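Q: Got a minute? One more chain.
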Amino acid sequence: MWKRTNPRLIQKLILGTLVICIMGFYCFTAQTNPVTNSVSMALCAKDTSYVHVLNNSSAEKVTCKPKVNLMFMKTHKTASSTMLNILLRFGENNQLKFALPDSRNDFFYPSSFFRSQVKNYRPGLCYNIVCNHMRFNAPEVEKLLPGDAFFFTIIRDPAELFESSFHYYKGYVPQTWRIPEKNKLSGFLTNPNRYFSPEGINSFYLRNLQFFDLGFENNLEVGDPRVHESIEYIAKRFQLVLISDHFEESLILLKDALCWQMDDILFFKLNARRAVSVSSMSPELKAKAREWNGADWKLYQHFNATFWARVEAYGRRRMEEDVRELRRRNAEMKAICIDGQGAVVAGDITDGHMKPWQPIGEATILGYNLRADVPQQFSELCRKMLTPEIQYLTDLGVNLWITRLWGWFKDNVLSS
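A: Always. Here it is, folded:
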């Protein structure tokens, strides 16, 4: 005899199939090919209306104007959501024009970026800031911004990044589902070729993710000359490559390069995981992760060296003083803005607008509660500093219907 089927299960399957069909149809029909008509460079404002007076190491006064035309290549699992929040606040405060995505919170990642993916794009429009997730495509990005735009990105030790991305995206990568070991991360890295296929669904999350985000082939062996060529290209195209493992020092270098003020780089750590969800990695396992992600490791080694060369040029003592000041200012804002001791699990966040996006199957991403007694002069700043990416983009007018539809499907069908 046939067992009686659970009506709720049937309903979920029907709704899930409908969601997948709608999203698939939209993604298939959406324009992702290059726009073929030629356009001139956007004539955005090259200067702000105010001048900062800075003191350099020789105590001489140096005047500079803040840079406002910016391209931030937002890589995955590199503290880039925190960096995004800084940029969104800076852009709003200075009434700059963002090139924003349309219907979702990225530019149709993992497809390569085309300027037609920008919300309300028309040839010749002026944009100041591009900063959402994409797979980098320099010629298309360059057509959105003035010639003086400052390009920068952020990278991370690939061992740490692999641990983070493996756990965060494992629900999206079927190749990880058949790993029998309880510690799937260790099981995969012990024999990655047993489980990995470059043609597998979302396989890019499993190897050289930073290389992939930056627009390059992510399955190259480390000795392939194209790896070195790609790194050379990044060094020429990006004026600054930040290191998330040294996030505060990175912000100080960015502040210096852009002629910003300390107020412009204040931050709270966003999109961070609960400590209990982070797998400890032995030195041997980290070595395996770096070997498996050889192109990313070579990328990291190169730009870690250039990063510390910049720190030396900036001045070690000066850097230490500025980092202490940044920490002091952040601690002040924490006391003003955040209720309780700090970041909390999603279930303990009382304001739904402050709840961060969660991966499939587990609520591991932390968020914050806003204090009820924030002084009026800090009210708007506190709220913006604590607002997660999805909600911030919505506040900026992006209709994230695909992201929200996927979120409903993820939370109500896949996670139950």
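A: Residues 41 and 147 are 7 Å apart (CA to CA).
Q: Perfect, thanks.
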